[in-house]
Structure formats: structure tokens, C-alpha cells
Amino acid sequence: MKPNMSLKKNPMPSQEALVRAHNFQEVALGYDEATAVDEALRCLSCKNPLCVSGCPVNIRIPEFIEKVKEGDFEAAYEIISETSSLPAVCGRVCPQETQCEANCVRGIKGEPVGIGRLERFVADWHNAHSDETPKCAESNGKRVAVVGSGPSGLTCAGDLAKKGYKVTVFEALHLAGGVLVYGIPEFRLPKSIVQKEIDNLVKMGVDLQTNMIIGKTLTVDELLQMGFEAVFIGSGAGLPNFMGIPGESLKGVYSANEFLTRSNLMKAYKDDPETPIMKGGKVAVVGGGNVAMDAARTALRLGAEKVYIVYRRSLDELPARREEVEHAMEEGIEFRLLNNPVEILGYDNPDDKRDPKNGFVTGMKCIRMELGEPDERGRRRPIEIPNSEFVLDVDTVIMSIGTSPNPLIKATTVGLEVNKHGGIIVEETTGKTTKDGVYAGGDAVTGAATVISAMGAGKTAAKAIDEYLNALVKE
Amino acid sequence: MYRIVNKKSLNPTVTMMDIEAPFVAQKAEAGQFIILRVDEESERIPLTVAGFDREKGTVKIIFQIVGATTERLNHKNVGDFIPDFAGPLGVATKTEGLKKVLIVGGGVGCAIALPVAQKLHEQGAEVTSVIGFRNKDLLILEDEFNAVSDKLYVMTDDGSYGRKGNVCVPINEMLSGGENFQEVITIGPLVMMKFVVEAVKPYNIPCTVSMNPIMIDGTGMCGGCRLTLNRDGQKVTKFACVDGPDFNGYEVDFDEAMSRGAMYRDFERHAYERTCNLFKKEVK
User: Fold this and answer.
1) Which distant-in-sequence residues (6+ apart) come within 8 Å of A325 by Cβ?
2) Residue A366's CB: how many other CB atoms inside 10 A?
3) Among A442, B23, B133, B260, which residue is least crowded by beta carbons within 10 Å?
């Protein structure tokens, strides 16, 4: 087969920007078979594939792409699924441009191979064509508890179930999926895809318990006493950070977690919902990560007349996935870069303390910034330009500036040590915590990070738990 | 699924239920709360634990019918199930070492104050209780409070039962008369707690309040339940779901909490009316 030497990726078919800005259906529609093969032919099948080392779970990328070239999509799926538990999810939400695709030789001159798009295609093809129910592995009689059903927990549970462990997943909310269901919106990751992954786990014999808040309903120590031989903690990100500026308790100020949870998990985006959310008006989202993009694009779809991203650095430093930034811009979200909020302003009728409008947001005072010298992480430090304050006319403000780990498990688990940020301390190569038989991974360890790195941590821990329990038997 | 094993109407707007939830019942303590959903479309609402039976594995909730979700919950009967009932959440009310305590409950808040009074009584503390209601029809739990209180004052705003006046009337009388307490614990409407705090403040008695802000997940994830404390001249943000629901009453910014609590008032009224209309249609 002749390689496709086009310098550009096959474009991703997408819903028209101005149409999708008003609906919650998926934005990217995915490659068809012919486009997938054409894109696969751009891969040069490097002998020393650098893309693989850029992938947190080391998917054998050139091998699966080779199968796509041959049109053997099921074989391609099998190669991916050997190392990745959630390919349909990762193909959609991974920041490929800083991982596998960043290392692709085709990217030196032109665009890299669309590895993420091909991964998504292969996973979707498999889901559409395979009705094979996942196999239940023969039980080895050992029980493992997994705390949290987000990407790290699902991955850890899946890998252990494949090895024959009897796994119970404890989820605090009423629905499994973690950030994949409460955080990432439908238009970026359809919930049916997440549900399918969870259904598969259940078919593999994983027991899923919702409404179980580990650290409260049961403690980690109680799980160990109940006969679970190991515990994996993937409890995810915790409480949202706020800036500490005046006005953050006004009505109309949300954390991104709250705004997205209301819309995604509680379905406030539907007509006449049970759970309320502020819709319409002018919205400012503070922050530049993927969560900020999700919140801004959700606000737009809920009917906002104007949505701003307010970020204190410049476009080059925006941490969000490139495609999400481009999508947001196409949809009409205005980027107020090098702007930093200093105060949120609220309505206060001096003549009427009972005016129902009192306490609602009326604007956000910001200051302009410029970039100074690079900081210790190499990012140029934003510096305030004196006397450059201005007021942005908004009635909703969504703070998307990160989270700190959930304190519930730490507070109730003796011997589990955390770092100064509250993240659980683990041995990087195994996910082992300071407590025997207890492993951890994902945002509970690292603070807010990506789905794929959480998945990688779940995988690492599953392997380490297996080795740990095998060693116990030998002793 | 969680089965309703007992249901009793305490007054026309307040209902008591015992829910089968063995894991929650095993751990629940006075002052903690649970999160429930009534059906698959339902929002998540927090309700403070009003009691528990560890042996039977049941948790008691007492709720006022104020909105769509509580209206739908009130239409459930013994033997029915609700899909979600998670907890116990929050930090239990601290009662260790307390020997003489004043408990002040207002309206449906009395349902939450009762287990605290019971716990104090069981540990041998001298308990004085003041419970207040708008009128006689809304009175709840008088006998239960009587059983665990050394002294009980029942107040109604209109004087239709007990003494006329708000809960601050007997508090002021007792404190100005030289009565002393190690701690005052108050649970009720925000405005009532605000006034109780003001009444107690001149006497330098520690005053604990139980906050009940709007919540979504209730597990320390969304930050919707945040409130501001004024601590040593600094404004401190706390989260009722993991740091509370009990707080030092002298530190709480009540005006902000009242404002935040009213954020969705129009929406809530609409949702409540829609739900009531649905039930009316069903009856027809």
C-alpha cells in the first residue's frame, strides 16, 4: 500500500459550529471507513515508533494503524484493547497533541497522523459491529475493592476482573462513571459510550455499588476487615478552588464542578428540569483548562447570549486540548486572554433590602496582564498592568481554576499519608500507598489531570495489586 | 433501592419516614445528613438525620413539604422504594464533655435538634430545650422533647399554643436571669439562628448552628454548599457538606447564606407548582 503523503490530517467531520452551539449532541462525528484507511496510510510505520512512548498506556500505535490500513478494524481494536480499557473514551478526550501525536515524525513537516481520530474510529467500529459479550474470567476467589468509578477505577476494576478477581466498585454518587458522567459534557463524550463501558464491566462480573461514600458509609479499614484483600482508591478530584477575591459567594457564581454536575449528571440542560441551573445571559468562565472549555461550551448551549473565557496568560499557555479551544472559538466563545478577575460585582439596592435582584452578579472587574519571565515550570509568569482594571458585563461567573483532593478518605484512614496539597502519596511505579494493601491513582493522587493518566494509574495499580496478592499466597 | 418502612404525618406540612438503609443506619450520628433522590428524574436533596435504629437498619428522616422533590417524596408510602439514599455525610454534632446545654429548635429544624438533645440526655447532660413554631398546627415532637429535656419551653409566634413569642424570649429571660450553659446548639430557619446567636453573644456562651445550604453531590465535589465564616478578621470559605453542617454561630455570615439560599426561588416555586399540578391531574 502506498503511503498517503498529504501534509494534512483528514479533517474530522463535525456538526456545523453555529448549529452545534445550540444542541448537546456530539460535536465530532467520527471518520468513516474510507477516511480512516486514508488517514492510516499517512502512518509510516516507524521501526522505532516515538508515538508509543508518548502514550501514557503505551498503546502499540503503529501496529493498530497497520490493521486499519488493511481494513481489519476488529484486529486493530484487539491491539488497542490489550493496553487501553476505554478506547472509545480516550479517542475522544485524550490531549493527543501533547502525547502520541506530539512525537509523530509526520508532524515535523506537516500535521501528525490523526492517531486519536483513528483510535476513536476503531473503538466505535467495534462497538457498532461486535455483539460479543465480554468474557467472565475464571474466579481466583480473591476480592478487591475499588473506590470510585471514574477512569482510574473503571480501568483498575476491568484489569483485575480479567485476571479473575472478584471486584466490587464503590461509587459515591447515584450513577457510575465519575468525571466521565458528571464532568465531561454529552457533546464531547456521549454518556451512552460511558454506560456501555460500565455495562461491560458488570457483564465481566464486577459488582457495582452506588451511593457508597467510602470514608463515610464505610471506611477503607472496614473494607479490608470485610474480606477485601486489597483496595484501590480512585476517588478523583475534590473540592473546587476559588480565587479568594470579593464577590465569589454572590448568586450566579459557580465552580465549574457545580455547573457541569448540574448540567451533565443532573440533566439540568433538559427542558423544564428538576435540578435548576442559570441559563442564558452573559457568562464568564475563569480558567483555561479542558474543564473551562467544557463549562463555557455548556453555558453557550444552555442559551447564553455571550460567553467569555477569562484567562490570565496568553493563547500559547492555554492548557486545554487544542481541538477544544478551536471548537470553542468556532462556536463564538470570546477569549479574554491576559485578563485576570479581581472582584465580582453584585446587585445591591440601597433602598430595598428585600429586592429579589439583590445579591445576583452584575459584572466582573478584571485587570489586564502581561507576560514576564518564565516561572519554575517554564511558563511565563503573568504580571498585572497597573491601573488597567475594567468591568466585564456578565451575570454568571464560573470558576474553573482547579480542585483540591477530597478530604473524606484521608480523614478516616489510619496510616494513609498525603502530601501538602492533600494528594495521596504513592509509589509511582506501583500506585502503592503508605498503607499495606491499599493502592491509589488518578486525580486523588495527582490533583486534576487527564482521563488517560488516571487510566494509566488504574492499570499500573491493577498490575501491582495482582503481584502483591500473588506474593501473599506464596508467603 | 431503599424501602420506606414507616411513614407518619407530623403536621399538614411535615412528614416523618423510616427508610431501610442498613449501611447508613450503622454509622449515622446526630447532626449528620443524608442525600436522597425520589425517582430517576429527581434532584438530589440533603436531609439531616432525625434518628436511626442500628439493629433494624433504618434511618429516620423528617421533612417539610416545600418543593417538588419533597412533594413527590410525600406521595410515597410504606413499602415503596426510593432509588438513592446515601450517607451519613457531614460531621456529627460534638457533644463530648457537655454537661449543661441549651437546645433551640425552630419549625422542622426541631426534627434535627431532637437527636442531639437525645444524645446529650443519654450521656447525662442537663438539657434545656426551647422549641418554636409559627402556630399550634405546626407543632411537632413535643412529647419527644419532653422526654429528654430537664426543662422545655414551647413557643408559638401567635400564642395559639405554649407561650407567645419567638424562641429568643425565654433565651433572653434565662440568660439575663443568670442562668448559664456550657453551649447553645440551635437548628432552624437561618433568620431564627441568626437571632439566637445575637441573643447568646453578650453572654460569651459557645453557640453552634446547623447550616442547610443548597447542595448537589454532598460529598465534597461541587462546592455549591460553600459559606463564609468571619474568623479572626479574615473571611474563610467552608463547605457545609464536609466541614459542617455544624459551625460556630459567631463566625457564620448569615446574610450571605440567606441570600444564597434564595438563588433558585423562582425556579423552585415553578417546579413545585408543576409537581402539584401533576398530582392533581392524577387524582382526577
Assistant:
1) A293, A315, A318
2) 23
3) B23
Nearest CA in chain A to B256: A249
Grid cell 522505532 in the structure block, residue: A48
In DSSP notation, A113-128 reads P-HHHHHHHHHHHHHH
Q: Which residues, 6 or more positions from A7, have their beta carbon under 8 angstroms from its beta carbon?
A: A109, A110, A111
Asked if the C-beta of B220 comes within 8 angstroms of chain A's C-beta atoms, the answer is yes
Write out chain A residues lying below 8 Å of B252, CB-based.
none
Query: Which residues of chain A are within 8 Å of residue B256 when distances are taken between CB atoms?
Result: 249, 359
Cell output for A146: 475499588
B222 to chain A: which residues are within 8 Å by CB?
240, 255, 257-258, 261
Nearest CB to A251 within list B68, B228, B260: B260
Residue of chain A minimizing CA distance to B85:
A211
- Domains in chain A (CATH in brackets) are 17-129 (1.10.1060.10), 143-238+404-474 (3.50.50.60), 253-399 (3.50.50.60)
In CATH terms, the fold of domain B2-89 is Elongation Factor Tu (Ef-tu); domain 3 (2.40.30)
pLDDT(B152) > 90: yes
Question: What architecture is domain B93-210?
Answer: 3-Layer(aba) Sandwich (3.40)
**Arithmetic mean of pLDDT, A56-85:** 93
In whole angstroms, what separates CA A328 from the centre of its chain? Answer: 17
Tell me the pLDDT tens digit for each residue of A402-416.
998 888 899 899 999
Q: Are B15 and B7 in contact (CB under 8 A)?
A: yes
Q: Is it the case that residue B160 has pLDDT exceeding 80?
A: yes
The grid cell for A463 is: 498490575
pLDDT on residue B84? 97
A to B CB pairs, distance under 8 Å? 114
Residue B10 phi, psi dihedral angles, 5° rounding: -85, -30
Closest in A211, A258, A406 to B224, CB measured = A258
Q: What is the pTM of this model?
A: 0.93
For chain B, positions 20-49, list CB contacts with chain A under 8 A. Answer: 23-24, 27, 37, 41-44
Picking from A217, A238, A358, the nearest residue to B221 by CB comes out as: A238
**Residue B86 and residue A238: Cβ atoms within 8 Å?**
no
Cell for A192? 451512552
